[in-house]
Amino acid sequence: MTAFSLINIVLLAILVATAVTITRLRALYEAAMLAALFSLVTACLFVLLDALDVAFTEAAVGVGISTVLILGVLALTRSREAVTQRRRRLPGVAAVLLVGGTLGYASLDLPAFGAADSPVHSHPLTEVYLHQSQEAVGIPNTVTSVLASYRGLDTLGELVVVFTAGLAVVSLLGPLRRRRPTRPERPRPIADFDLADYRVIRVVSGGLLPFVLLFALYVLFHGEYGPGGGFQAGVIFASGFVLYGLVFGLDRAQRVVPHAALWSLVTLGLLVYIGLGMATMLLGGSFLDYDVLAPGNPATGQHLGILVVETAIGITVASVMTTIFFSFAGRGVSR
Amino acid sequence: MIASHYVYWTFFALMLIGLYVVISHGNLLKKLIGLTLFQVGVFLFYIGLGKRDGGSAPIISDGVEVYSHPLPQVLILTAIVVGVATLAVGLALAVRIFEAYGTVEEDEVVERDRADLATGHDGHQAAGRDSGGS
Amino acid sequence: MSVIEVLSGVLLAAGALALVSGGVGLLRFPDFYTRTHAASVTDPAGAGLILIGLLLRVDAWDTAVRLLIILLFLTLTSPTATHILAHAARRDGVPMWQEGDRRR
User: Fold this and answer.
1) Which one, of A51, A38, A33, A50, lies nearest residue A11 by Cα?
2) pLDDT, averaged across chain B
3) End-to-end CA separation in angstroms for chain A
4) pLDDT tens digit string along A181-221?
5) What residues contact residue A96 under an 8 Å CB cut-off, 6+ apart?
6) Contact across the interface for B52 and A114, Cβ inside 8 Å
7) At a CB cut-off of 8 Å and minimum separation 6, what does A214 contact?
C-alpha cells in the first residue's frame, strides 16, 4: 500500500464520516460548519487527485462564500430542523437503493482507478490538450488554456449562468438599494455587538484585506503559469469584500462599492467576454478564436485573448458573489 | 476489483448520502446542504476519472512526463462556481418561503397550503410582510 | 542524512504531535473554553512547526518565500479567530467549567 492510497483512504473516511454526521445533525449551524469542513477535506482530496485549480476553487467557495451564505440564511430563518418523520424515510431509502444499485452495477465497467489506458487518457483529445497546446497556445497550465481557449464558448455559458443566478437572487431578495425612506430606521439594539468596535478584529482584518485582494490579483494573472485563473480570483476577491462587510458593517461596505459600480461591473465582465468574441469575428476568425488577435503570431494572440477572458471572468464572478452577499446581508439589516 | 474501484464507490456513497438527505429530510436548508454533498460526490467522481497513477497536475513542466487529464478539471472548476451561485438562488428562495410561511419545513408549508385551500382564502399572501421591494 | 534533514524531521514530528494533542484535547476537555484552548494549539504550533520543518527542506527560494508568507498569515489569523470566538462565547454567557461539573 502506497502513501498515496493511505492518505486517500483516510481522507475518504473523514469525508464519509462528516457527510453522515451532517445528515444526522438537527442543529443547522453545526451542520453548516461541518459542511465547511467537508469542503476543506474535499479540497485536500482534489490536491491528491492532481486537480490544483479545482482544489483552490473549492477551498475558496466552500469555506468562504457558501458557508457565509448558509450562516446568513440561518440567521434569517430558523436554525433547528424538525424531527424527520418516519414515513419520510422510506422514499429516501428506496431511491438510495435504486440509484446505488445502478451506480454499483455500472461501476463494474469502469476502468481501474488511475489506469493509464482508460478511455479518458487514450482519447486523441488528451494529446491535443496536453502536448499540442504547448505550441498552439504556449502556456504551461493546460487547465487555463482549455478553460479560456479551447472551450471558451463553454466557459462563456457558465459565466452567463453565474450572471443569471446573481440576477435571480437580487430579484428574489429585492434590489440592492437601501429600504424605502418612508419606513423609519430602526435604531441598532444597544446590546448588539459591533465587530468593528472591537480593536483586535478591526486591525487584523483591516490589515489583511489589502493582501487578500493582492493575492486575488496574483491568482488572476499567474493563472497561465500555475494554478489560478478568473474563477478562483473572482471568488477570493469577493471573499475579501465579504470579510469587509462582516467586520465593518454593510453600510460601509456599500459605500466602498456603490451599487451602480457593482451593477456595471457585473455586466462589464460579460460584455468584455462577448465583445472579445465579436472582435475576433470582425478580424476574420471565428467566435473567440484568439489567433487572429496578433496576425502572424498565434501564441501572442492566444496569450492576449486568455488574459482578457480571465480578467472578464474574474470581474463578473467577483461582482456577482459580492452582489449576492449584499442581497442576503441587506435582507438581514432590514428585518 | 476492490483495490481498484473503492475510490469510485466512496464517491458514489457520498452522492447517495446527499440524495437521501434531499429526499427524506423536510427542512429546505438541510435539503440544500444535502444537495451540496451530492454535488461534491459528482465533482470527485469526475476528477477521479481524469486521475492517472503517478501523474502530476496538468501544468506542463520540464522533466514531468505523466499528467492527469485537464478536461474534467476545467468542467468541475466552473461547476463549483456555478454551484455556489445556484445554492445562493436556493437559499434566497428559502428566505422568501420563510417570510411567507414562517417556516422552512416542507411538511408545514404543504399543510398551510392545504388549510388555505380548505378555508378558501389565500392566507400566506397576507402573512407575507414584504412583497420584496417592487 | 544531513543535520538539516534530521532537524527538519524532528520539527515535522513535533508539529504532528502538537496537532494530535490538539485533537485529543478537543475531544477530552470539559467545556467550550478549554476546548478552544486545545484547538488553538493546532494552528500556530502544529502547522507552524510543520511549515518550519518544510522550510528546511526546500531547495528553491520562491517556494521558501511562499511558505514564509503562509506562516506569517497563519500566525496572524488563527489567534485572532480563536480570540474572537472565545470573546463571543463569553459575551453570550457560555458558563465556565468548575471542578466537579459534568462535561458539556
Assistant:
1) A38
2) 86
3) 57
4) 444 444 444 444 566 667 888 888 888 899 999 999 999 99
5) B16, B19, B20, B23
6) yes
7) none
Query: In this prediction, what percent of chain B has a pLDDT beyond 90?
Result: 51
Cell of C51: 511549515
Asked whether the CA dihedral A302, A305, A307, A309 is positive or negative, the reply is: negative
Q: Which of C76, C83, C84 sits opposite A208 (nearest CB)?
A: C76
For residue B14, which of A6, A108, A120, A41 has the smallest C-alpha distance?
A41
Q: Which segment of A105-119, A154-168, A193-207, A315-329 scores lowest on mean pLDDT?
A: A193-207
pLDDT tens by residue, A15-51: 999 999 999 988 999 999 999 999 999 999 999 999 9
The pTM of this model reads: 0.88
- Interface residues from chain A to C (CB-CB < 8 Å): 193, 195, 198, 200-201, 204-205, 207-208, 211
CA distance B89 to chain A (A): 5
Bridge-partner residues for A80, per DSSP?
A27
Which of C80, C87, C91 comes nearest A204 by C-beta?
C80
Q: B2-127 architecture in CATH?
A: Orthogonal Bundle (1.10)
CA distance A26 to A114: 38
Cα(A320)–Cα(A159) distance, rounded to whole angstroms?
A: 10
